[in-house]
Amino acid sequence: MQHLLYSFVRQSQLTYYKTCCRLFTRYLFILLLALPAHSLFAQSNASVNGYITDSQTGETLISANVAIMENNRGTSTNTSGYYSITNLEPGTYTLRASFIGYTLFEREVTLDSGESLRVDIEMQPDGLELEEVVIESDIEREEQRNIGTSQISTDLIKRLPPVVEPDVFRSIQLLPGVKAANDFSSGLYVRGGSPDQTLILLDETTVYNPSHFFGFFSTFNPDAVKDVRLYKGGYPATYGGRLGSVLTVYNKDGNRNETRGSVSLGLLASRISAEGPTGSGSWMLAVRRSTLEPLLAVLRSSVDNIPESFYFYDVNGKLNVDASSNDRLSLAFYAGNDNVKFPFAEDASIALQYGNQTVSGQWRRILSDELFLKTTVTGSRYFNRPEFEIGGTPFKRNNDVYDISLKTDLEYTPGEHHTFSAGIWAGNLVLRFSDSFDREETFANRIETRYASAYLQDRWKPNDSWIFTGGLRLNSFSEGSYLKAAPRLSAEYRPGSRIRLQAAYGRYYQFLTLITNEAFSGFDLWLTTDDGVPPAFGDQFVAGAKTSPFDGYAFDVEFYYRTMRDLFELDPFTSDAAGLDYDELFRFGNGFAYGTELFFEKQRGRLTGFIGYTFGITRRKYPGFNTDITIENPQARYYPPKYDRTHDANAVLNYRLSSRWSSSAVFSYATGQAYTEPLGRTEFSGVPWGNIKRETFTVGRLNASRLPSYHRLDLSFSREGSFFGMGDAEWKFQIINVYSRRNTWFYNYNFDENPVERTEVSLLPILPSVSYTVNF
Amino acid sequence: MNINHTLFLTLLMVLLFSSCDIYEQDEYTEQVVLESYMIAGRPLPVVRLSKTLPADVEYSFGEAALTDAEVIITKLENGSPAEEFPYQTQANGVYRPANRIHRVEPGSRYRIDVQFNNRDEVLRAETITPEQFDILNDVENEYVYQSENQLEILLSATESSARQNVYVFNTLAREPSLENLTPFYLDAVEEGDSDISEFLNNSSGLINEGNFDIKEDRTILLRFPWIGVAFFGENAVVTNSVDQNLADLVRSEELQLGGSTLPPGEIPNLIYNVEGGIGVFGSISSDTLITRFVRPDSLRQ
Q: Do B265 and A559 touch (CB under 8 A)?
């Protein structure tokens, strides 16, 4: 009977899923039929379109701005570096393109009636540091300053003083609205959300555990990365699946003009990369590996409990082929692995291996001057394999995530007023998890779910002052049979050339939750919704102003308020999952966050950089948690999670000292993290097993106290030179935590002392390092 | 709107938001602590009553003990009192039953009521004692430590009102000495991380029934893990079935010590199933076997 019931439920889910897929297909088909019909009415007008690339490397430039100056028509390149300006009257125009760090491009183009002119633009890099005035019109800065969006350049990532390695995530943590859990974690806490509320895409592929060294820094190799963009909130209908934010990372396509390479030697990790042209495209390969072995060997001879083996590596690669002038194909992959073996006591050892692999194949086609199609097949795998053996008793865990998907995005630009986007994303997700204790399997779970989403979006620009972007995203998830509609809406008003007022609203759903620990990300485990475990959802409201008070300066402000409902996460009181129903593993709660972000940036000159400040509040509430034990029938109360910081400020300054020497400084300040102050204590001495007294605290409001404020100054100096005439070289000297501020991570309580003794566990001390990079 | 206005509005909003954050630390509040554990088949247990002390002062039960309490344990049948067992003071903060004959019955519901003549608090809690089970199989007289031949325990089937039984295993060393410590525990003692006394009664954590091989006749077969053996020589291996109250206390106490998904520094209160105070009124049923764990040849001197 149970088997029959199960079969029935599975069959129902399958039927439901098929219905959803059919609806999506029909919806896309109607859209595809409608688009060419619409384009027929615009045949008498001309258009200009093409790719914008770096003239030296041939890399496509994402979000480069392009405009027709005479009629104030503009747009920006999409994530493929493609632009299209349609519905132009025949005539002669000035086509202008701009991108930060590149010389302004201008060219006169003459368009005949009905002509579709292909203009592929190659932009000349000019260097950020030059005292060069570049005149930009207000329409040339479209994408970079959209609401809730932040960008960080790979140049800046490499220039900042790194902890161990230049790191994408640690650089992003400097942006307003983004916080770090601590010095040891590269996890992204965006606008009051936990790290699993940020969708992380590498070349359009979901990455499930983007960390090395158990969270110490991220998997993205700055040598391989081309574009990093964070949609902090109020993100558009083109993305979905996470409550809070989206981080898109695009790897380089590779140099289309010449073969180049780079070698970087560091004390703890080294990198090598190469790129070059193929007959009709380009390739790129970047490898990074930790180089801790010599240090471990030295330590092993004098210090106990040094790991027997401890390394990580990652490999990024990409191959691009231009099949025709309108068709581009690419294949990208990433593979990373962390490995540690650690005999930590007599007859006791731990071994952990974890990593990610991603692969994506993409076909980009210019269907017409108005239609751009991008189809991507993605594959992503995450695994971890912790093994303990203590006193002859082994414990093993196998955890695998497999995600295979197909996504298609279509952009349609019929004229100056509308840009339509539509797409589908469907995939199959398998989560496998098993525990064995003493060679016997104690827990096994396999979740296979199909997911599908479809969106439709219109960017409507009725005049030069207003832009409205409205969209709807449908999300379906077969595990639990959920179908959810998520509307998105944003508006922008430009009262003058130096100010843009923006507002956005969006509904967001999340079908996954991450079980992790702030101190250690090597055991991360993803779980999904199911019957009795509904998806989390929330609304985001964002308003802000983007201003340019002076040429070369920007001042932005954003306010946000967001809700988080039906949050589901592993119940921390669950000490043993065996024998529990799936929904019994979780606790379900709510939360909210609000705040203000200020961002002041100097974009040009010898001195560049930014100052970001965030005022933020975030709260959570779970039934039975953070109750008042002094009253009868206590109710749960909202509390700040540990990463709640009221004030958070970062200053990043880069100064070119001479033609060879440059320096960078990063100063960070944040309100101390929330922690729970023990108020009372008692002991339980009669528990019928064990010899020790169980000494416990009583507490009041959870996380109502604050650690001392956090602040830290990092400096780096770099000297550019030549490597025996064979290539450019750079020495980099850096000091992390210059004045050795002993910031507190948490307090540890030692019950062996009476009264109980409190000790501080500190974060990073002063940390000097040096690296040498050769570009050939 | 000019930029000065934007800046002004921004600062105003920041000040407005800042003033809304009124989440402040509570003051310390003294709590009454109840502690008592019923063991099926044994006489009624003692009851310990104390108060919490501030976290930063020296703790001793003598300082915290509460006197002048009226304690009654009541056996309930179908929710109604069937038999009452009044308590009397045994020592400062420790109360013993007047009835020394009654044996705690497995699978039964008991209630405890506490009130004080010198305090206002009134405490009440209930427990359902786990069903009695037995170890059905014969065990060998000795097992070679970390050999293929592992101690197996076959537990009888029980009719539990709970979703599943929760077990704790503990090993009581009969021949404890430094020389008899198994390598892992010896290392912990020699490194100064632990004291030998901590391993005399060596226990597992809470283990759900779902971990074990449940046979068709609902008996449970389990292999005793070698990690549970801290001493060579004769040991008593005790299997305990734990009630919900005690399981809640232990799992939340382990969480308070850290190591879960909670970040370091986030310390929740324990789960107390006691009205009017905190603490535990728990119960267990248990069975014991005796065997010897002997050194393998590789560990003989």
A: no
Average pLDDT on A132-155 reads 63
Cα separation, A122 vs A112, in Å, equals 23
Which residues in chain A have Cβ-Cβ distances shorter than 8 Å to B15?
none
Would you call B24 an interface residue with chain A, using a CB distance cutoff of 8 Å?
yes
Asked whether B32 and B82 are in contact (CB, 8 A), the reply is: no
CB within 8 Å of chain A, chain B residues 200-229: 200-203, 205-211, 213, 223, 225-229
How far apart are the C-alpha atoms of A270 and A248, rounded to whole Å?
A: 25
Please tell me the predicted confidence (pLDDT) of residue B229. Answer: 96
Number of residues written out for chain A: 776
B249 has a chain A CB within 8 A of its CB: yes
Give pLDDT tens digits for A703-757.
999 999 999 999 999 999 988 888 889 999 999 999 999 999 999 998 888 898 9
Interface probe for A, chosen from B5, B94, B187, B269 (most Cβ of A below 10 Å), is: B269
CA distance A123 to A398: 49
pLDDT above 50 (res A150):
yes
pLDDT digits (tens, 9 = 90+) for A516-574: 887 777 889 999 999 999 999 999 999 999 998 888 899 999 999 999 999 999 999 99
> Which DSSP string corresponds to A506-551?
EEEEE-EEEEEETTEEEEEEEEE-BTTBPPEEEEEEEEEEEE-SST
- A–B CB contacts, 8 A cutoff, strictly below: 285
The H or E element that residue A10 is part of is: helix A2-40
pLDDT category of residue B152 using cuts at 50, 70 and 90? very high
Shortest Cα–Cα distance, B229 to chain A (Å): 8
Strands (E), A55-131: 65-68, 73-76, 82-88, 91-98, 105-111, 116-118, 121-123
Q: Which residue of B has its CA nearest to A641?
A: B266
Touching B: A residues 21-80, CB under 8 Å: none
Angstrom distance (rounded) from CA A124 to CA A104: 8
Residue A706 confidence (pLDDT):
95
What is the SS3 assignment for B118?
coil
Interface touch B201/A747, C-beta < 8 Å: no
Residues 142-181 of chain A with CB under 8 A from chain B are: 181
CA distance A206 to A210: 10
- The string of pLDDT tens digits covering residues B153-194 is 999 998 766 678 999 999 999 999 999 999 999 999 998 888
Q: State the complex-level ipTM.
A: 0.91
**pLDDT score, position A7:** 38
